[in-house]
Design goal:
By secondary structure, the chain is mostly helical. The protein has 12 helices and no strands. Helix 6 packs antiparallel against helix 11 and helix 8 packs parallel to helix 11. It starts with a helix and ends in a 17-residue tail after the last helix.
Length: 312
């Protein structure tokens, strides 16, 4: 006969979605349908971006380069800013590449929803709640990193192109410039996800707050080193623009881990008291904590030990 504790645990256990028990063929069919819907959403976003390219999207992408002083960029006969295309299909490929990337970003809410709907039947209610929080935070951090990269792009270009010196005409090709911009946006966006990964590892119990707090100096040092290697511009301004927000986000992740560990400790203590029978003693731990060990004398005894508990 199951104990009272076992019954209570079964009652508190969150029920899984009935779809979690679908056969393999049904899962594959659902996966095919959701992948198809996601592809349609991406294609629709790509078509929208392809039309948008002549309505301001192209000018928005070229703005950091065209905002440079005239001696640092290529100017056509009319004095306008432009990027060079060195092959017949270069212009079409660049437009398609930009349209596809923007289409993926614009349609992200739709295909992320399809991914989420495919995964949620196998998750518990608490896991679903954490999943929504992490997906939202991940999207926001990526967008924040990409926005910061776009803002710092002009300063990085001005510094790098200015190093060419006098008597050098800088004429960037469209392929080189677009590739540079995309790599910078991805580097900033993905780098801002690292603190969130630390929080996720703490939530699942892999990484504790003590480990994060003890390695704080190393984390900050490796963050600066990481920013120095990852930034495509390799200039100090862009490196600081990436490293400083990442350090702030890592410190925020450490504080979030502190709160999560305290909640986990309180929950564990409450569970240990529930398992105690009416005739059993409470599982009180008289071992001094780390804080007590630092301030109490070495020969002192934990509180609660009387003379009867002392060894003869």
């Amino acid at each position: 006969m199951p104990s009272v504790r076992t019954v209570r645990l079964r009652q508190r256990r969150a029920a899984r979605d009935p779809q979690a028990g679908m056969p393999l063929v049904a899962h594959l069919t659902e996966l095919r349908n959701r992948v198809g819907v996601s592809l349609i959403a991406v294609l629709a976003g790509t078509a929208l971006a392809f039309w948008w390219y002549d309505q301001g999207l192209g000018d928005f992408i070229r703005a950091p380069y065209c905002g440079l002083p005239e001696e640092l960029r290529y100017n056509d006969a009319q004095g306008g800013c432009g990027l060079l295309v060195t092959d017949v299909f270069g212009g079409a490929l660049i437009r398609l590449k930009i349209s596809f990337i923007v289409g993926v970003v614009v349609s992200a809410p739709l295909w992320l929803f399809q991914v989420w709907q495919f995964l949620t039947p196998g998750l518990k209610s608490t896991e679903k709640r954490y999943g929504v929080v992490f997906v939202t935070a991940s999207s926001a951090l990526f967008g924040l990193g990409a926005a910061l990269a776009y803002v710092s792009l002009s300063a990085g270009l001005r510094l790098l192109l200015g190093l060419a010196g006098e008597g050098v005409v800088v004429a960037l090709t469209a392929q080189d410039y677009i590739g540079f911009v995309i790599s910078l946006l991805l580097a900033f966006g993905l780098s801002f996800e690292l603190p969130l990964i630390a929080v996720a590892l703490n939530v699942v119990g892999v990484l504790s707050h003590d480990a994060l707090s003890g390695a704080r100096r190393w984390i900050f040092f490796l963050t600066v080193l990481f920013a120095a290697f990852v930034t495509p511009t390799q200039d100090p301004f862009t490196m600081v623009a990436m490293a400083a927000p990442m350090i702030v986000l890592f410190e925020l992740a450490i504080q979030v881990a502190r709160v999560v560990d305290r909640r986990r400790a309180r929950r564990s203590m409450a569970e240990s008291f529930r398992s105690v029978g009416d005739g059993e003693a409470s599982p009180l731990d008289a071992t001094p904590s780390r804080l007590d060990a630092e301030f109490l004398p070495a020969d002192s005894e934990p509180a609660g030990l009387g003379d009867a508990a002392r060894p003869a």
